[in-house]
Amino acid sequence: MNQNEKNNPPVIWWLRRDLRLTDNDALRAAVRDGRQAIPVFIMDPALLQAKAPLRQQFLFGGLRRLDEDLRLLGSRLILRQGNPAEQLAHLLAETGASAIYAEEDYSPYARRRDAEVVARLPLRLVQGLTVFHPAALTKADNHPYVVFTPFSKAWKSLPFSFTTTGSPHPNLFAATTGLESLPLPEMRPPADFPPGEAEARRRLDRFLGGAVFEYAEGRNRLDQPGTSELSPYLRFGMLSIRAALTAALQALQRADADDRRSVETWINELIWRDFYHSILYHFPGVLKEGFQTGLRGIAWREAPADLQVWQHGETGYPVVDACMRQLAETGWMHNRGRMIAASFLAKDLLINWQEGERWFMRCLVDGEPAANNGGWQWTAGVGTDAAPYFRIFNPLLQGKKFDPEGRFVRRWLPELAHVPLTYIHNPWMMPPDVQSECGVKIGTDYPAPIVDHAIVKERVLNAYKKT
DNA sequence: TGAAATGTTGGGGCG
DNA sequence: ACGCCCCAACATTTC
Predict the structure, then answer these.
(1) Is A335 a catalytic residue?
(2) Does residue A273 register a pLDDT over 80?
(3) Among A248, A320, A434, A445, which one is most buried in terms of CB atoms within 10 A?
(4) Does at least one atom of strand B sit less than 7 Å from the CB of A335?
């Protein structure tokens, strides 16, 4: 231990879902007043048990990238495994660190975990997961907002100023020689999402350099890259939400009137993210049941075979199946697709939305309890500010509207590659001679529809009305 | 961040 | 020139 460290004990910088060196307020707070930080990640069996292979690989890749970045600064990532409170206690003893700094996480599990650590150890939580702390936004009567529009108005009225920070200076990190660290796990990150801060920044720059100005329309197109595809990076904090917002506000400055609407639409999506974090913070029970008390008695169908058909993209509705196969293969699904697929499970199949929530959490690289739960509750019509129960997506119309050339469907359902455009979203209508011409026998090469939308629409309306 | 049914309007063909 | 009808396009209502 050198002289400097003797006089000024280091601190632990505990990374959880803020895997970045730039624009990180937890790191900034940790190294204030000349303290040096020891970067630590703890593999928590309680989290890693959750079966989500692609997301886990993305996380592992992120740890590796972070370790590489730290090594360029003469430091490294210390990796431990086990109960966080126990591991941190060990680390404090080993290093003589005076405190632990971490970015605050608002999920129920994270809050229980952090409360346990706070009770035993000097843990300082720093806000940064969302633009504003969920507790900073409440109505005049002190109750949390449960409707998006008033929430967003209040959100926009709060002062936002944020100084972006570049790559940190090497001397911010304490020596880690002699500290034990597990070997970084092998990684096979999802092909479409190379992990790491640098990639996140590239994507942000690319998106804000072009697509964001078409976002109002482009975001709905399944067949075009109109979205930012930043969700996995925001999920693990490889990109800070405030850096994203700052960059968006800059794009707003250089946009003309028409483009401005598009940038604002994207910023609105960032507000939805804050909104759902806030809902989960104030109403942790939403992970167990629907927010609307009046809709908790819906008679969902117990239909494991149908659930599997949906999961594997074999419903016979091309746009639904394409979405589900994209999810299984890439770990990502277009937001429009998420609504279409979710509506199909909850409304057409009348299967409990929580089954879908669970499946998405297993598959999604960006899988995150607050946003995933919020999205599912919205679609099922059981959440805060939810879609009215009678708002039922028609997969055929959604397909025609948002994949007008059928390119998205053909991409993910190669068996339909030669189906003429007229039938691409309703192949079951193809006359037998057309089926043989394009080499698809419905019911053999591609499934016949699992349900008749027109019929099950009445079924779901009745099920919701009866509660 | 629906869909479908119903209502309204207005242009153009035609007697 | 005029009224009538058709019907697309758009608006409104309802679930």
Answers:
(1) yes
(2) yes
(3) A320
(4) yes
Domain boundary pick from A282, A304, A333: A282
- Which CATH number characterizes residue A414's domain? 1.10.579.10
Out of A262, A282, A302, a domain closes at A282
CA distance A158 to A120: 35
Q: Are residues A110 and A223 in the same domain?
A: no
Residue A349 carries which side chain, given as an amino acid letter? L
**What average pLDDT does the structure give for chain A?**
95
Average pLDDT over residues A155-160: 96
| A248: CATH | 1.25.40.80
Domain membership of residue A184 (yes or no) is no
Q: Are residues A9 and A109 in the same domain?
A: yes
Q: Model confidence over A279-293: pLDDT tens digits?
A: 999 999 999 999 999
pLDDT tens digits for A319-329? 999 999 999 99
Q: Tens of pLDDT along A382-421?
A: 999 888 888 999 999 999 999 999 999 999 999 999 999 9
> Tokens for A244?
């994203």
Amino acid at residue number A228: S
DSSP A9-77: --EEEEESS---SSS-HHHHHHTGGG--EEEEEEE-HHHHTS--HHHHHHHHHHHHHHHHHHHHTT---
User: pTM of the prediction?
Assistant: 0.96
Same domain, A277 and A302: no
- Strand B contact at CB of residue A272, distance < 7 A: yes
Do A227 and A299 lie in a common domain? no
CB A359, CB A221: distance < 8 Å: no
Does A75 fall in a domain? Answer: yes
Residues A242 and A261 in one domain: yes
Q: Based on the domain organization, do A230 and A322 belong to the same domain?
A: no
Residues A269 and A306 grouped into a single domain: no
Which structural domain, as residue segments, surrounds residue A61?
Answer: 3-129
Beta-carbon neighbour count of residue A253 at 10 Å? 8
Which bases in strand C are touched by protein, i.e. have an atom under 7 Å from a CB? 15
- Catalytic choice (A5, A269, A314, A415): A269
Number of domains in chain A: 3
Q: What is the pLDDT of residues A5-49, one digit of tens each?
A: 446 899 999 999 999 999 999 999 999 999 999 999 999 999 988
A398 CB inside 7 Å of strand B? yes
Does residue A318 share a domain with residue A454?
Answer: yes
Task: Please report the pLDDT score of residue A2 as a whole number.
Answer: 44
Residue A401 approaches strand B within 7 Å at CB: yes
Cβ A148 to strand B below 7 Å: yes
Q: Which nucleotide is nearest to A461 (CA to C1')?
A: C15
Is A3's pLDDT higher than 60? no
DSSP state letters, A355-397: HHHHHHHHH-TT--HHHHHHHHHHHHT-STTPPPTT----HHH
